Each structure stands twice: as structure tokens, then as C-alpha cells.
Amino acid sequence: MIFYQVNRILYKPYVIYKFLRKVHTETLPSSNILYPLRNRGLLKVAGDDASVFLQGLITNDMNHFEEGAKSVYAMFLNNKGRVLYDTLIHKWGAESSFLIECDRKLITILQRHLKLYKLKRKVDIEDINKDYSIYALIALNAPDISDDKINVYKDPRLTDLGYRIISSVDAKDSEVAQTVGKDVTEGDEDGYKYLRYKLGVSEGSDDLPPGTSFPLEANCDYLHGVSFHKGCYIGQELTARVHHTGVVRKRIMPLKFTETISNIEQDSVISASNNPKSNLGKLKGFVNNYGLGLIRTKEALDAKTLKVANYSAEALKPSWWPIEAPKEVPKNE
Fold this sequence. Notes:
Blueprint: H1 2-10, H2 13-25, E1 32-36, E2 40-46, H3 50-55, H4 63-66, E3 71-77, E4 83-91, E5 97-103, H5 107-118, E6 124-127, E7 132-138, E8 150-154, E9 163-168, H6 173-180, E10 184-186, H7 189-199, H8 236-245, E11 250-257, E12 269-272, E13 281-287, E14 290-296, H9 297-303, E15 306-308, E16 311-315
Parallel strand pairs: 1-10
Antiparallel strand pairs: 1-7, 2-5, 2-6, 3-4, 4-5, 7-9, 8-9, 11-14, 11-16, 12-13, 12-15, 13-14, 15-16
Organism: Bicyclus anynana
Main location: mitochondrion
GO molecular function: transferase activity
């Protein structure tokens, strides 16, 4: 009876989750760090039809903004259900105005994509990169600022990713750091990328080349970036089908290498160390001793040790992934 009660407590999903969160959080930065994101760009979509227009193009639900959300994570897909652009969409000023944040290299292509579907809708699509800068603030708390110079948004994906800061381009990094909190230190883009890779979060065209992966493979569902209850959007049919079958064999996962990496080609094959001919996935990028791979989840976790080029690594299951509840221990045990 005592054994059964102990098992009931220890095997509860939230107990396991709290434990993993504690262990995982100890590896993340403890201080407040501001990372400039020069590789991110902004498009402004405004007009009476802006919300309805975007609703038919993205994986997430624009109605979240009517419910009080300031930002949502969303992906634009092609008609085959593959990811074209991963984005953060921020509420901006007027009621029918939004900023789409994405990889700076894809801004022109995304703008062209939006104009293709604009038709006669009352929507203006504007590239505003020359006017604003983007930052990531890793901190437990941040001031609620929304003015002409600085706007603060909570990252809608994970608490560990902190906040997004959109500031006027004439504000210096040091000025932004002083405005958003005390004892804020300034980092660089590699530092933010390293944090993302430790968490197992993909972002931008280097991690997700357009047209090569599906949204659930990029953990869009785990990162609150897809709605399975909204109406139609481009690429919805296949996304919904995969979700309802419950079978996603490959996902973006963090890789921890046994040493600091100096050079590996992108899309290098990831194999099990005990079976060099196996193909479990591809490497998407690396920073220091962490990488990001699109990997066959079960096989990679079962393999324990993986091989990427001449380096050894381990696939890690992120603590923020949903935890499956184990079967209840029978009472007669």
C-alpha cells in the first residue's frame, strides 16, 4: 500500500515536470542579458482587413489578439504543408496593425508572398527594418513598456526565451539595456543562438530552410504556434492530418557534443554510433558544444550516443516537451 502511494506521487507528470524544469533551468543564464538580433527583420501589416488577411495564411489564430495576447508564434506554410517562414507576430499601435518578425534574409520574399495573396483586401504591407531594431531580453521579469521608442513583448514560445524588445533604430544598445531593467548585461547573437540550441528551439532560415520541414517537426505545436481549431489556412490539411494521426517521427532536438565544435557542414548526417550506416536525421547548426538537429526522435534517444561527422553527441529531450503520463500502478501491487 505504501509502495503504491509513493509511486502515485512520484509518477505524477507535474512532479516529473517540476524536477526536469529545475535541473534544466540551472543550465540557463542566471543574470539579465540583452541580445541584439541583427539577423531579424520586421514587416508591418496594417489596415481594416489585416487580421482576417493573416488568419488565412498562418498556422496560429489571430483571434488570440482579441483575447488580449500581444504576440503569437506562427508559421507560413506552402500548399504542401511545409514551412516557408517561422515568425513572431506582435500587436502594434492601432487596433488593425501588426508587426511580423522573421529572418531578415527572408523579409523581401515574405513581403512578396503576402502581396501575392493580398488581392483587394484593405491591407498595407511595409518593410520597416530601417526604422527599428530587435532584441531578446533573457530575464524573469521586464517592464511593460509600449511607446514610440521601445516596446516590450513576452516571447510567446517559452518562458526561458524571455522577452522581445522592439526599439527605435536610433536607440543605442546601452540605452535599451538601461531602460528594460537593472543590472542588464549586453550579449551577442551567438550567445542567444547558444541559448536557443540548448533549449532545442529553431529560428530562421538556417535552422528551417524554406520548404524543407513540416511545422510539427519544428515543434510548432509544443511552442504554441499552431491552432487546430481555427478555420482554413494554406497548408492546413496536411498539418491537421499529421496531428490527428499522432505520428511525428522526426522533430527538432538539441544535440550536446562531447567537445567544442570547430567545423561541421550543415545538413551533415546524424547516425547512431553503434550503427554508422544509419541515418537518423540532419544537423541544422551548432554553437560551441551544442547543436540542433532534425532527428528521428525515438531512435536517437534509444541510441544514447550519436555520430555527426567525426564528433560524438547525445540527443536531449527538452524539458518543455509535454510529458506522457505513465500508466498507473495497479492497486494490488
